Amino acid sequence: MRTGEPLPAVGEVLAALATGQWHWSTATGLVTVDAEAARLLGLPTIRATLRESQVRARLHPVDWNEIGGVIQLAVAEDTIGEVRVRIMDERGEVVRVTRSRFKPAFDQGKRAYEVVGTLQEVTEPEPGTPAGRRAVTGDWRRSREAFLLDAGRALAEARSTAEVLRVAAGLSMPGFSPDGLAVFGVEADRLTIIGHHGQQPGDEGPFTHMSLQTDYPAAEVVRTGRAVYLSSPEQYRSRYPLTWPLAAHFGRHSWAFLPLTVAGRTMGAWMAAFAYPVAFTPDERSVLTTVARMLAQALSRAGAAETQRELTDGLQRSMLPMLGPQAIPGMSVAARYVPTGGGLQVGGDWYDMIPLPGGTPSGGGKFALVIGDVQGHDVRAAGLMGQLRIALRAYASEGHRPDAVLSRASRFLHGMTDGDSELLDLRFATCLYVEVDPATATLDIARAGHPDPAVRMADGTVLTRPTAGGLPLGIDPDADYPTTRLTMEPGETMLLCTDGLIETGGHDLETGWKRIREILEEHKGDPEELADALLQAVHGPSSHHTTGPLADRREDDIAVVLLARDGEGCGCGDTVVVRPMVRRTMLTVAQDEPERVAVARQQLRELLHDWPSAEQVDSAVLLLSETLTNVLVHTDADALLLAEVRGEVGGRRIRVEVTDTSDDLPHKRRPGELASSGRGLMLIELLADTWGVDPRGEGKSIWFELTEGVQEVP
């Protein structure tokens, strides 16, 4: 560089040294990398801003965990942090080893870290060579402690045997990493293979169900509880001549067999095989022994947890019906259940399908769908759920109507918990009971404190169906449960669910229902596929009656039941119903329930969710409110609302009809400027396209219609 020339930028100097720069803000969760850092991460060589998850996917999981600990330590000691980072490809294989130095800072206001650092590729000496030994010896103690800390944390977080084996296979020991692993268990007097890594599928065959009396290192370790170290093939051949041919074809040069001991009992053995000679110095044996102890503890915990999950899953499944592929004429049913991921993974949510007297569902007879939620997520909740389910089945099988079934069930549950000596453990349950008549597609619904059902119409419109209800079961033995009758149109699908489906992921009832509504509107498959889609939207893939990956992340139990009437739009089969496009909702507003006027307004807005003119929607809602209020104020009768949308998009017509049993016909009045009422018919005449009042045999019906206007193109 000549005197007087400007100094190069820092980035240019670092790039010339094949060193990248990165910046990480935990407040935003974003990582900015320059072109060189992006190249080292295996990404396109351009400056980029990435999410934490994108960067994490490129790093070895053990190294990612170490970064967090080093950042905290560097902030506490006000020093520069340094970590060794292995870069992974899409297949999970290490493609390069890098070193990162960084200076972190902690923002007290944001409660977040700001980290600026460098990233540089390093060339590691060949393991087992003198250079490799010297490289490790220089900072052996620090590397060993960091490795054991990371290994212990990763093994402690593993929840299943498969996860433990994946962690063990990914362990990179300081200076002498094995390239072949096997974990042996014990069944009776024989060895079993729990898992292996670094071998081809099928290579474990000769070692499976090997007798403990066999002249094999792992068998000797289990018999004696002492480790076996073999530094060379010659040592292996001379010490175990009978089983040496089994190990020879793997081409390894050194082996370590260590006991897996828990509470003084040897539960198996761990083999670490090396592709290069290892002397197994005291330091190396110390690391291997410590890893074997942690591995044994992790396998013991995972095995106990899996046994517990199998037990509780079996308990929960035994309390749930297996709906199976039932051939219900004109209808289909799908259901899913997933217990909470915490504790014993049992809970109080349930569903059931009950054939009612007079026939079976497959023969066209009536049946009942029940869904409910007993308070709690423990064995007691599961036990009460099982007893309550049996009681509901008994009452339904006696031929009682839905309201009587819930009244008896409430009295039954109250009697079970009222005399409980644990006064702080009184339980109640929510429940939704639906009596279904497949012949007419009518539903008689009784509800005990449970979320209302929702219906997806044939054109994809989704409405909640407000139903009359009472207190949750078990609170008041004399509670009443009024019944609501609905009729399912061809192509409609009804959703029944517990609140776990709605509120999972930090949602409340409003935001959670918005998420569920979007899934119902967009999904085009059959009820089985829709049930899976609902669970996937909550927390990931799941299958019928599973408690797998989804359950591990659950905050509350989930129960889902879908009832679909065959026809165009439900995806229930080959049945196609040719009919005019009709969208309909019906609601009763009683004299003592003026608050249901707001429910009726919401129902109408949901019915008109895709209406192009917001002004027409507002007009329809206003006129509906006027007609309902007119019935409640000027008569002693209840009001029945029927709203329908007919026709094709662009020329649809909305008809709203309010019927009551009073013979008093409405008449137009001329209110003064200060009058608070009397403008209802004037508004209808002004805003509706057509309207009228029709006398009925008993009572009258006032109706109005609006025609879909042509949208103006802006």
From TrEMBL:
UniProt keyword Phosphoprotein, yes or no: yes
User: PANTHER family from the xrefs?
Assistant: STAGE II SPORULATION PROTEIN E (PTHR43156:SF2), STAGE II SPORULATION PROTEIN E-RELATED (PTHR43156)
The UniProt GO MF terms for this protein read: ATP binding; kinase activity; metal ion binding; protein serine/threonine phosphatase activity
Q: Boundaries of each PPM-type phosphatase domain copy?
A: 328-565
Protein's recorded name: protein-serine/threonine phosphatase
Q: Keywords for this entry?
A: ATP-binding, Hydrolase, Kinase, Magnesium, Manganese, Metal-binding, Nucleotide-binding, Phosphoprotein, Protein phosphatase, Transferase
Q: What does this protein do?
A: Primarily acts as an independent SigF regulator that is sensitive to the osmosensory signal, mediating the cross talk of PknD with the SigF regulon. Possesses both phosphatase and kinase activities. The kinase domain functions as a classic anti-sigma factor-like kinase to phosphorylate the anti-anti-sigma factor domain at the canonical regulatory site, and the phosphatase domain antagonizes this activity.
Q: Which Pfam families match?
A: GAF_2, HATPase_c_2, SpoIIE
Top-tier EC class: hydrolase
